[in-house]
Amino acid sequence: MNRDKMSYKTSQFIMFAGPALLLFTGTVIVPLFYGLYLTFTSWDGISLSKPFVGLANYSAAFADTSYWQSLGKTFIYSFFSVIFINIVAFLLAYAVTSGIKGQNFFRAGFFIPNLIGGIVLGYVWQFVFNRAFTALGASIKGGTVPSLLSTESGAMFCLILVSVWQYAGYMMLIYVAGFMSVPEALKEAALIDGCTPGQALRKVILPLMRSSFVQCLFLSVTRCFVVYDVNLSLTNGEPYGSSELAAMHVYQTAFKHQQFGTGQAEALILFLICAVVGVTQVYVGKKGEVEA
Amino acid sequence: MKNAKKIVAVALASTMAVGMMAGCGSSGSKGGSGKSGDSEGIRVYNSKVEIQTQLEEMAKTYTEKTGVPVDIVVQASDGTVTTDLSTAYASNDPYSIAMVDAKDIYSLAKEHAVDLSDQDWVKNTDYSISVDDKVYGFPFCVEARGLIYNADAIKKVTGKDFDPSQYQTLDAFKGLLDELKKGGMKSPTGIMKEDWSLGAHYLAQVYEEQEDPDAFLKGLHDGKEKMADNTKFNSLMDTFDVLMENNYAKDSAISAEREVTEQKLAEGEIAFMFGGNWDWSVLNQYSPSDNMGMMPVPQDTDDGSNTKLVGGGSKYFFVDNSVSEKQQKESKDFLNWLANDAEGQKGLVTDCALVPAFKNNTVEVSDPLGKSVKSYADQGLLIPNYNYLPDDHFTVLGGEAFQKYLGGKSDRATFAKDIDTYWQKATLTEH
Questions:
Q1: What is the pLDDT of residues B67-112, one digit of tens each?
Q2: Chain-centroid distance, C-alpha A124
Q3: Does A144 lie at the interface with B, CB-CB under 8 angstroms?
Q4: Cβ contact, residue pair A240, B16, below 8 Å
Q5: Within an 8 Å CB–CB cutoff, is residue A243 touching chain B?
Q6: Is the CATH number of domain A60-287 1.10.10.10?
């Protein structure tokens, strides 16, 4: 059997990748292009007719200042979330691979927040911020303490804190895998050659774990950019629309304001930004990867 | 060759990874409801989530009596009327009857709805919706908004029975609040910060109390009217300032939770809250006193608006023209049963605890807020809803501008200007 033959390769491809490709096409590629088509219409979401309007939706999206404001907030939110998620996740991973007692228990414990859906998690934390923290503050300071969620910067801080809490455990798992994949022999050799544990970590373990960093950064960046569920249930864009992030703005425009075309155009812009940031980051990260 | 393979492998792997992530991130399944497949039976879309169980019970009763299966499909938890209906149309599986808001009837009727002008119930209601002289919208119930009061809580402090008709002016109302405060009720009012309550209900009342809301909004749009100079705006905002001043959550007004506010009202810790009879479903969870009710928003005015609640028909059924003739007929029968049959009437009023929109439905309303609404409606003391506000009105003005005002981040002049700016840019809904 000639394995270089086109027919052989095609059948192999269909056998292994066919089902996934079919699903992917049906759930991602087709909607993407359909969405692209919708950006050229002024469809309201229900009407039978989809009038063609050319690039009007794009100019509307570019003129929509509150969209750009929400995009700016998304950048700020993503910047801090990504940094803190990864720092916390790395430290947790370091702690739970260092051989402390009950480390499997801790691994499970840190991972659990990620198993709670974002909507539930938002409501739980809303309760914590609005009732538990205010009660705590009141008992320490006396009088009434306004909730963190009622100020603009406070709401943003809460969003970041909750995201870090949610994702750190998940990213921790990837870092744990990274730590475990570094061969024992190399670590031992480094120590025998006179490295302090700190030096071994910096000079040997970290470079070998680079792919974990690339993955974690990519995952956290792309997730933060399109965050919606926590945003919806924790702050719902309040106070006065100041914590409305890009994905939520897109949803509002498309479904609540019934401007599907403009919403789609804004979603597409978000997608492009997200793709560019993600791909650049992976490209840069991959370039410096070393193999053991 | 090896390189190409690698590229294909990476492409596929990332394809699958992205696919999985997209799967996690998407809004989930669109509530695939079991379709019976045969032409018998009708599907009813319910956008009033809180009465789903009651509607299902009513549907069962109806099926037992007539043999027509009725499937009640509730609004998806992450859906809106628009998304749910468009999903139904996109999958070629429309609902026979859909419960939507008044504004949706205006936008949907011509393309999707069946003309119901010849139906029996039309003559028995003032609240049906017509487009181009054809009746398309079946009014499901009557809802109205105003100030909700807890008479027991007031009596406990003042020692007198509370008579809302004595507090129609702002001065009288302020006097009562002072009396309550002196008597030990620290802060007698509560305010819901929700964008729909501020934007679609309180601010909308400013438009609805104008002599001609359409002309007024057109004036705002053309820049001929200025909110800051408007008597109704200033009068209603004066009242709002008093509510704000006495708000139990004065310092954190924009993070006050609806449930907490309603609990305080039900338990009598506060005495007043602006809301509507739909709030009963929340109040009812906190064993409220029976002596509650609704009164007009107090204002120093003599145009009579302080003797009326604002409201009218709420939630409308339309019959879809894309379902089979037989289903259309069965749908009409179902609506007739709701409006005219004793069992249907009782289900609506007693089981769902709603205020009926039909004059021939004389079943007694069960909850205290509904009773108030019914009595105002029967006396013709309802200022009609304005159903043509743009879709982004309540999020932009209610959620942003009005919340800023409530949070003390802007003053009345700024708020008025925000409203002017919004309307100058807004597209007026044609009707």
A1: 899 999 998 876 778 888 888 888 888 899 999 988 889 888 888 8
A2: 20
A3: yes
A4: no
A5: no
A6: no
